[in-house]
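Good morning,

Attaching, inline, the backbone tokens for the sequence recovery test we're adding to the shared suite. The designed sequence is right after.
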């Protein structure tokens, strides 16, 4: 008997291998899956310009990167002991203005470079609600704990999202014609909106993505939201806040992700690399023993074989640990 509904994920006409370059942008859920790829040594960039929740802020970040926008002193403001920017997450906030501006400009250039070289871009929308500066009407990425009276808040319409992303996708395709774009909707519920308005927000995002998928054959959709809502519809798959997916849920989505995008050969390569990572994290009883030195040499030899079989993989951290043993 089946005791849950399993989401049917349509076949994609492309996959992800160790030759692929991927970029993840959007909400913190993008980081959950992006970091899984990074931890298994895929060529992956995760939110180089920080966490972004709404479609307009994600779109603006991409367009600014592609246009080569340079941020200056007038684009940041001082509050709470740090310099901040309404276009960026608080991880770019710094005590010194120059450090804040420099960090932002490095991130913008990094995003542009990653887009130009990427094979696949994963875009995760978190909410259809946006905050605008009351004085200018500018949509902000982050309110940076400024007074509520400084902002107005509203729900985006489907057409607003589609129109902004139509322009964004055209710019992406002009910059990198081979790029494939996979949209997802974050399963993290914005509970401060209430149950009903959270569903309205997520539904708006889903309708917009569906329209974009119909307009652009280079785009597709991965049902992370539906997997959590339907396959894992149990609070044991949530963290203690009952809003964010638990590590178990993230791991399950990662497995469904692998079923969708990884060939059997890629899965085998992930397993080989995983063994190297586990071996490097092993703490020997006697690091000076001949047995451990031989263990390190065998793993260094396997790293070279993996590089020959797969291509360049970043094993610098693991090689440093093995080579530090004074191998035989």
């Amino acid at each position: 008997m089946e005791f849950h509904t399993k989401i049917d994920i349509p076949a994609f006409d492309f996959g992800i291998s160790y030759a692929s370059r991927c970029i993840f942008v959007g909400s913190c859920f993008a980081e959950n899956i992006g970091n899984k790829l990074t931890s298994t040594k895929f060529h992956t960039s995760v939110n180089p310009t920080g966490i972004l929740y709404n479609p307009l802020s994600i779109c603006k970040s991409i367009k600014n990167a592609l246009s080569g926008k340079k941020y200056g002193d007038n684009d940041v403001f001082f509050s709470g002991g740090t310099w901040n920017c309404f276009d960026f997450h608080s991880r770019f906030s710094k005590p010194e203005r120059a450090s804040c501006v420099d960090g932002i400009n490095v991130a913008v250039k990094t995003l542009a470079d990653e887009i130009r070289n990427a094979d696949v871009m994963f875009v995760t929308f978190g909410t259809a609600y946006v905050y605008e500066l009351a004085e200018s009407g500018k949509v902000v990425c982050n309110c940076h704990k400024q007074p509520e009276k400084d902002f107005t808040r509203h729900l985006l319409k489907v057409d607003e999202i589609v129109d902004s992303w139509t322009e964004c996708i055209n710019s992406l395709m002009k910059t990198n014609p081979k790029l494939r774009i996979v949209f997802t909707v974050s399963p993290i519920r914005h509970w401060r909106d209430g149950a009903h308005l959270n569903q309205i927000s997520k539904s708006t995002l889903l309708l917009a993505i569906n329209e974009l998928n119909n307009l652009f054959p280079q785009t597709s959709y991965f049902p992370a939201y539906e997997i959590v809502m339907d396959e894992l519809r149990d609070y044991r798959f949530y963290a203690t806040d009952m809003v964010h997916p638990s590590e178990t849920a993230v791991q399950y989505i990662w497995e469904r992700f692998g079923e969708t995008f990884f060939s059997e050969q890629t899965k085998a390569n992930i397993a080989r690399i995983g063994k190297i990572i586990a071996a490097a994290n092993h703490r020997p009883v006697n690091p000076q023993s001949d047995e451990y030195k031989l263990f390190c040499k065998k793993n260094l030899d396997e790293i070279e074989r993996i590089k020959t079989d797969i291509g360049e993989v970043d094993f610098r951290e693991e090689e440093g640990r093995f080579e530090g043993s004074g191998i035989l």
